[in-house]
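ugh ok fine here u go
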Amino acid sequence: MKTNEILHKLKSGEITIAAAEELLERTAFERMKLRFVENLARLDVFRDRRAGIPEVILAEGKKPEWVAKLLLVMVEERGRAMATRVDEGCLQKIREVAPSEYRIQVYDEARIVTVSEPGFEVARTGGKVGLIAAGTADISVAEEVRVTAEQMGCEVHSAYDVGIAGPHRVLTPLEEMLGKGVDVIVVVAGMDAVLPITVKGLVDLPVIGVPTSVGYGIGAKGIAPLLTMLQSCSPGLGVVNIDNGFGAGALAALIANRVGRARSRDR
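structure:
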């Protein structure tokens, strides 16, 4: 039970002060709860309640059977689990071991897989995220942003291939996003990576830049886009690491979800 639910029950007289104290202590303990999985991992199963971001399994660098095992344990604990950077071999193993009644959702471009119990639905938060990708080659990272934010309850409005080589292309998507009331904008860009700097100069919202390893020469490693964004003269632009779509999506969702909750309280 969440803290606000306990307090509402106390206020309405449904529970006593002593019962509320006991429930609050139990909730605090649950927020720190770890699930030990053999010698593989210590899953932070209630991370979302404590930190606002769910525990997510990074598949890259792990054996497929490990990833599959961790996903199933998370589903057992919370009804849904998510893995990033999933390749074909890992996906095959997940499909082999998951119970037939579980729903496996594959997001190919994002390289994300979610596994959930029957009937599980992500609760909508009211948070709204704008998402822009400079070029078609940046879409895989942008999709990682999109899926992550949606899995955290956000509504995502996206526009792809609107890079700075044709700066007029971004104006209409930006206008549409602002019209829909987005709370934060994520801009994914490689090459010269000037687009997030330009976008921040046009909007009164926080902008998150995601440099990608797309481009020629040294830029192909993402170093040039990263340094360009870090040297921005547009205040209000934050930058995550190279190709870190998950990190950008999680940060954007944290911001948007907080705004979404505030909107709900004000109604």
